[in-house]
Amino acid sequence: MAQSALIVIDMINTYDHDDAALLIPSVEESLPAVTRLLRRARELDVPVIYVNDNFGQWRSHHGELLETALKGPHADLVRPVAPDDASLFVVKARHSAFYETPLGYLLTQQGVDHVVLCGQVTEQCVLYSALDAHIRHLKVTVARDAVAHIHPDLAEAALRMMERNMGARVSAAEDVRF
User: Fold this and answer.
1) What are the b/e assignments for 141-157, b being 16+ CB within 10 Å?
2) For residue 147, what are the β-bridge partners?
3) Alpha helix (H) residue ranges in the chain
4) pLDDT per residue over 104-137, tens digit each?
5) Could you tell me the pTM of the whole model?
6) What confidence score (pLDDT) does residue 146 get?
7) Helix orientation angle between 152-166 and 127-135, rounded to the nearest 10 degrees
8) Burial (CB count within 10 angstroms: exposed 0-12, middle 13-18, buried 19+), residue 9
């Protein structure tokens, strides 16, 4: 049976990086849509999979990443989207959620053929994850208002590329069909 999954990209974040000042306003703007999307997915029993950067800390695991982010100065951006007990978690080291991670295997095990992407950064990790999902023959939806960007012009171009070049459905979070 075909199944959708919500993929939450890099939302567990300390915002301790060079582009944080540019990213944070967009995260604040997208946060309500991300939380609504998470709520809907959980209500519908759609698998929620967090795929998060390990920030170069190879010994880190998802609990430590979450704990560190919740102790940081931007915990208010993390707390509303924190994983619940049913959430799955994949740690990544590069931009794509798929690159050298078990995500592809996990999706196969869950019977997933459609991924809904939200999170950050639109013109980086979201774009590369959408491409890798597409080349794996997965259907891709990107919730336009539930992704955050550093550069608005590049984000718009990335969304157009995902839609045009990858056949992704780009829509408002409220219009996402799981």
Assistant:
1) bbbbbbbbbbbeeebee
2) 119
3) 20-43, 62-71, 75-78, 103-109, 127-135, 152-166
4) 999 999 999 999 999 999 999 999 999 999 999 9
5) 0.94
6) 98
7) 10
8) buried
